[in-house]
Amino acid sequence: MIIEVKVPSVGESVTSGVVSAWHKKSGEFVNEGEPLFALETDKVSTDIVAEKSGVLETKVPEGQEVKIGEVIAIIDDSKQGAKQEKEEQPQKAQPVEKKKKTESQKKPEAVLASVDGGRPESTIQATTLSPGVRRIVEEEKLEPEKITGTGQGGRLTKADVLKAMENRGKAEPSEVAVAKAEEKSEPREARFIRKKMSPLRRKIAQQLVMAQHTAAILTTFNECDMSVVQELRRSKQDEFTKKHGIKLGLMSFFVKAAVEALKAVPVVNGRIDGDDFIQNNYYDIGVAVGTERGLVVPVVRDADKKSFADLERDIADFAGRARDGKLKLEDLQGGTFTITNGGVYGSLFATPILNPPQSGILGMHKIMPRPVAVDGKVEVRPMMYLALSYDHRAIDGKEAVTFLIKVKECIEDPKKLPLDF
């Protein structure tokens, strides 16, 4: 029976995707439930599994864009039994193998005698060389099938092989020259390569342009001293890891600080919808994760109700699944505020762009030792620049600055956070 492999629906708003990779090649046997191909959409990348066991026949190549519901392969489950029978009885092939070997061990004369008159010319030449011609061919390591014979019936004569020897010596320099000329004429590297953008990259591009065109984006900056947080992580790391089975990172501190700042300045946790402003009274914090396919923002649900350990587990899980392309569509939907950390790539100072329809995004950056004034004295402290980009249509400058200062205060004095280690 032939089973059609169709592109499944992976979300209400998703109409197409790209077959980014076939996990099984055409002609290979696939088991039921085994991954067939990776489908990349503008939302997520996910593996599609086989519904039945059988031999796969692909209909589209890797990298081709396909529509939801389109048939991209078939599986022939009738070939399953034949495959299993072959695996269970491998010894049946031995008599045939032995017979073939016996045929191949026959003497050349016997083989020639059993073949009809339609023998290849090279076979005739190889078996009809005169002793003198054969000696020259063997000594000079010539290939008789490549030499044109002028004797009766196309046989090679001594003059033919001697001429071939002479021409071989003359041909080598010219062949080398041609090869060098061809090598010089070939470009070392293409000047440019044109390829289609992936659905995810196209969606990212659309979102970024939409953010620039539909929001009045402004950014305010500040800096925070990371000394206390770093010391707290050092002193609590072993205990935290043994207790929870995961390391205490930086992001959980900033998620907690962002929640406290959103509570203090609620307007940053809202969004504009037409002529209305929607004020969110829950805290679903998006954490931007960079992957090879582009930036994705999985959402930590009800971050205000989660402990440091819960936050670290969620973030680590999202990061791992994002890199493996296993995020689900619901993982990326419904965030009220976003945090992005360019510091992991070495960014010292940047302006993050809004993640529509949200009104605010917090940018973290690289921690750098810098001289700062502390109680009238200059000290070198581990400092991080912070950036808040916000929609000025909904948020005033005073509110944005107040929000960022609240984040700074919570990071520099973590006792203001619910430290539930």
Give the overall form.
Answer: elongated
Give the number of DSSP strands.
Answer: 19
User: pLDDT average, as an integer?
Assistant: 83
Q: Tally the helices.
A: 11
Quote the beta fraction.
Answer: 15-25%
Oligomer: single chain
Stretches where pLDDT is under 50 for at least 5 consecutive residues are 91-127
Secondary-structure-based class equals alpha+beta
Biggest sheet layout = 7 strands, mixed
N-to-C SSE string, H for helix and E for strand: EEEEEEEEHHHHHHHEHHEEEEEEHEEEEH
Over all CA atoms, what is the radius of gyration?
36 Å
Binned, the helix content reads 25-40%
Report the span from N to C terminus: 58 Å
Description:
This protein is of the alpha+beta class. The protein has eleven helices and 19 strands. The strands form five sheets. Strands 9, 12, 15, 16, 17, 18 and 19 form a seven-stranded mixed β-sheet that branches. A four-stranded antiparallel β-sheet has the order 1-8-6-3, with no helix packed on it. β4 and β5 form a beta hairpin. α5 runs parallel beside α6, α9 packs across α10 and α9 crosses α11. The longest helix is centred in the middle third of the chain and has 28 residues. The chain is elongated, with a radius of gyration of 36 Å. The chain starts with a strand and ends in a 9-residue tail after the last helix.
Keywords:
421 residues, alpha+beta, 7-stranded mixed beta sheet, 4-stranded antiparallel beta sheet, elongated
Layout of secondary structure:
Blueprint (H helix, E strand, L loop, with lengths): L1 E5 L9 E7 L6 E2 L4 E6 L4 E5 L4 E5 L6 E3 L3 E6 L3 H9 L5 H11 L3 H7 L6 H7 L3 H10 L17 H28 L13 H16 L2 E9 L1 H18 L6 H14 L5 E4 L2 E4 L5 E3 L1 E3 L2 E3 L2 E2 L7 H16 L13 E5 L18 E5 L3 E7 L2 E15 L5 H16 L9
Parallel strand pairs: 12-16, 16-17
Antiparallel strand pairs: 1-8, 2-4, 2-7, 3-6, 4-5, 6-8, 9-19, 10-11, 12-15, 13-14, 17-19, 18-19
Helix pairs in contact: 5-6, 9-10, 9-11
